[in-house]
Design goal:
It comes from Cloacibacterium rupense. The chain is mainly alpha-helical and 126 residues long. Helices cover 71% and strands 0% of the residues. The protein is globular and about 45 Å long. The structure holds protoporphyrin IX containing FE. Protoporphyrin IX containing FE binds next to helix 2, helix 3, helix 5 and helix 6.
Length: 126
């Protein structure tokens, strides 16, 4: 196995990850609550991860902000983020190995932890 090196690698990773997510216990956030348009969401996520891992592009979305409305529809709890992370790490380990693959796991973990905390705080303050 090789490291995550190209935009094409990111596409493979992101596609395989959301294939798992869709049929997992956190799938309802995407399928039922947000009713995600995958044709739009996936390309957005390619750019997001390219900006996080390669810094060759700038992501102009709002990674934290996008989740508050979803958190209002159904609480996004710590265990949901644990499932998200488990699937992300599993998808990486099934396809890639190396420094960037490791950093994709660490960075996701940091963002997921911060996001879980922010969602919990938003619920407490509402
Ligand atoms: C339980 C965990 C999570 C759930 C259920 C979830 C769900 C969602 C949903 C439903 C959307 C909106 C899609 C749309 O309407 O097009 C979204 C957007 C997004 N998510 Fe998550 N997410 C989770 C965790 C994360 C984590 C940990 C990250 C980053 C490492 C992340 C990054 C993003 C980004 C970058 C967007 C697009 C933001 C934008 O539109 O500007 N998500 N997520």
């Amino acid at each position: 196995m090789e490291d995550i090196k190209t935009t094409h690698d990111i596409k493979i990773l992101v596609n395989a990850f959301y294939d798992k997510v869709k049929t997992s216990e956190i799938g309802f956030f995407f399928n039922d609550l947000a009713q995600v348009n995958w044709k739009k969401h996936l390309p957005k996520m390619y750019i997001f991860w390219e900006s996080v891992l390669f810094a060759t592009v700038k992501f102009d979305g709002n990674p934290m902000g996008a989740h508050y409305p979803i958190n209002e529809m159904a609480a996004m709890e710590k265990h949901h983020f644990e499932t998200w992370l488990k699937l992300w790490k599993q998808t990486i380990d099934e396809n890639f190995t190396g420094e960037i693959a490791d950093s994709a796991k660490t960075k996701a973990e940091n963002i997921a932890n911060l996001m879980a905390y922010k969602m919990e705080m938003a619920r407490k303050l509402s």
